[in-house]
Amino acid sequence: MKLSRSRKMWLVMVICAGLVVAQYQLASSWLITTQQPQPLSETMQTAIDQLQIDDSVMAAVGERVIRDIALQISQKLSSEMCTSVVDSELQPVSGKQTDENGEDIPTLYIITPTYRRPEQLAELTRLAQTLMHIPKIHWLVIEDSRVATPQVTQLLLRTGLSFAHLI
């Protein structure tokens, strides 16, 4: 039996439509039978239950956690004690920082000119998060305005970085 050209096209379209329907049916039945994800708290609890920690690791983790908590508290206290909106003097860097060879790391000065616009805080926040990973840094933020923006000042205080907020 010889099929005409139009009948061949109809046959191909019907086969494709059948494949699409079969694929849809298989995909929906697979989605229904998949296991639902556990809540985050259950996952965390399971991971904690499976974790076996010896005393030396626990002591090191505990010391690091205590150090992080102390750093956060000192940053919060220092930001609350600051009364001036514009701080043009250097803030002391905590501790003596050295590189792998034991040499003193020089202070890195980052100068950021900025002006008031909708995306200003988002960009400064991203930059601050990056700068927080750099040791011994002093951030100079220079605003192009007559008065300092309170939101920028609060952001600078929250970072805990050594900074100068100039207008």
Automatic annotation (TrEMBL):
<dbReference type="InterPro" id="IPR005027">
    <property type="entry name" value="Glyco_trans_43"/>
</dbReference>
<dbReference type="GO" id="GO:0050650">
    <property type="term" value="P:chondroitin sulfate proteoglycan biosynthetic process"/>
</dbReference>
<dbReference type="InterPro" id="IPR029044">
    <property type="entry name" value="Nucleotide-diphossugar_trans"/>
</dbReference>
<keyword id="KW-0333">Golgi apparatus</keyword>
<keyword id="KW-0464">Manganese</keyword>
<dbReference type="Pfam" id="PF03360">
    <property type="entry name" value="Glyco_transf_43"/>
</dbReference>
<comment type="pathway">
    <text>Protein modification; protein glycosylation.</text>
</comment>
<dbReference type="GO" id="GO:0005975">
    <property type="term" value="P:carbohydrate metabolic process"/>
</dbReference>
<keyword id="KW-0472">Membrane</keyword>
<dbReference type="GO" id="GO:0046872">
    <property type="term" value="F:metal ion binding"/>
</dbReference>
<keyword id="KW-0808">Transferase</keyword>
<keyword id="KW-0479">Metal-binding</keyword>
<dbReference type="GO" id="GO:0015018">
    <property type="term" value="F:galactosylgalactosylxylosylprotein 3-beta-glucuronosyltransferase activity"/>
</dbReference>
<keyword id="KW-0732">Signal</keyword>
<keyword id="KW-0735">Signal-anchor</keyword>
<feature type="signal peptide">
    <location>
        <begin position="1"/>
        <end position="22"/>
    </location>
</feature>
<keyword id="KW-0812">Transmembrane</keyword>
<dbReference type="GO" id="GO:0000139">
    <property type="term" value="C:Golgi membrane"/>
</dbReference>
<keyword id="KW-1133">Transmembrane helix</keyword>
<comment type="similarity">
    <text>Belongs to the glycosyltransferase 43 family.</text>
</comment>
<protein>
    <recommendedName>
        <fullName>Galactosylgalactosylxylosylprotein 3-beta-glucuronosyltransferase</fullName>
        <ecNumber>2.4.1.135</ecNumber>
    </recommendedName>
</protein>
<keyword id="KW-0325">Glycoprotein</keyword>
